Amino acid sequence: MREDFDLEKLFDLQKKIIPELINTLIERYNILRLIYFHQPIGRRNLSAALGMGERVIRGEVNFLKEQGFIEIKAEGMNTTELGENTLETLKHFIHRFKGLTSIEDQIEKRLNIKKAIIVPGNANEDPMVLREIGKVTSAYLKSLLRPNTVVGVTGGRTMATIAEEMVEDTTKKMNITVIPARGGLGKDVEKQANTIAASLAKKLGGSYKLLYMPDHISKDILTSLYEDPHIRDAMDFVQKIEVLLFGIGRADKMASRRGLSQDKIEELIQHSAVAEAFGYYFNKNGEIVEEINTIGVSLNHYKELKHIIGAATGVEKAEAVMAISKLNPNMVLVIDEGLAIEILK
Questions:
Q1: CATH class label, 100-344
Q2: CA–CA dist 96, 230 (Å, integer)
Q3: 3-state DSSP assignment of residue 335
Q4: The whole model's pTM is what?
Q5: How far apart, in whole angstroms, are the C-alpha atoms of residue 112 and residue 96?
Q6: What sequence ranges are listed for the domain CggR N-terminal DNA binding (predicted)?
Q7: Which CATH architecture has domain 2-95?
Q8: Domain parsing of the chain, residue ranges
Q9: What angle in degrees, to the nearest 10, is found between the helix axes of 19-38 and 54-66?
Q10: Hey, CA dihedral for 85, 244, 184, 318, is it positive or negative?
Q11: What is the full per-residue pLDDT of the chain (345 aa) written as tens digits?
């Protein structure tokens, strides 16, 4: 306890006495992180991505190379093993320096959830924050896995990024099965739950099942399709989901992905709908506004789950996160710093 207190005092002193040191550290962390995520990358592209002059970038790149954090080849710059280890260390330092541990505690109490994990930065301003969300969430997911676990995953950009950032590990044969937690939504194949489930299963050395149906299918048609053994097998596996990984979507955006008319979307907004999940639209208090046709994890199933990970980025999702957080206190929430601060407002 005393050590933590002294460390916090040290951070405060550094901010007051040598603020330029902290600014330089964060700037170099951002440069190193961008090289890591986009390697190999040239100086010109690095300069454009960071909005910094090439002369400044040249000096910083030379410094990182001299310290052994990066190597420069003909095709561009890459991080070394030392550079990647340093990134992890700096990430934890910046997390504490920004007081994010305290903000995580506040989020947990405000939303009454099991755990909050906050990634430094604002995803609306820095695209790399979404990659960090993917990296952190995928690592936490792996920590929950046990032999024969059935994992459910929804679709969307955040879930696709988590699958991309999952470190492939086929050495541990745990017989993991990954299943889409909802049917297909939208037109982007790479963001569909089926695609993400297959990608995650491959990274985890497991197997997967597919749901060959749109999410908004009617119950009558679903009953008829259930006679197909492949569809029945997949739907039965949905009921076996033990760990659920899902993205948190705003009501208006999700309604648009479902192809609803603008009049219907405005009607939902007038009824204070802020989030959509598990066959319902919810207001910010987690109260049901409207029921919809959907397949996959039901609301009752969700409320019974002990291992659920919700991930979201962007300040505009604050009310949606607040709504979904009301549904199950076992939720582990992974969000960016900008969204966390917006929730606390």
A1: alpha beta
A2: 49
A3: strand
A4: 0.85
A5: 22
A6: 27-94
A7: Orthogonal Bundle (1.10)
A8: 2-95, 100-344
A9: 90
A10: negative
A11: 444 445 556 666 666 666 677 778 888 888 999 999 889 999 888 888 888 888 889 999 999 999 999 999 988 999 999 999 998 888 888 888 788 999 999 999 999 999 999 999 899 988 889 999 999 999 999 999 999 999 999 999 999 999 999 988 765 678 999 999 887 776 778 889 999 999 999 999 999 988 877 666 666 676 676 677 777 777 888 899 999 999 998 999 988 888 888 998 899 999 999 999 888 999 999 999 988 877 788 899 999 999 999 999 999 999 999 999 999 999 999 999 999 999 998
Cα–Cα distance, 114 to 67 (Å, whole number)? 40
Q: Where are the beta strands (DSSP E) in 147-205?
A: 150-153, 177-180
On whether the CB atoms of residues 216 and 182 are closer than 8 A, the answer is no
Measured distance CA(108)–CA(113) in Å, rounded: 5
Cβ of 340: how many Cβ atoms within 10 Å? Answer: 24
Question: What H or E segment, with its residue span, contains residue 109?
Answer: helix 100-111
Sheet order of strands, 288-291 included: 249-250, 275-277, 280-282, 288-291
Partners of 196 in the beta sheet?
Answer: none
Do 215 and 300 touch, CB atoms closer than 8 A? no
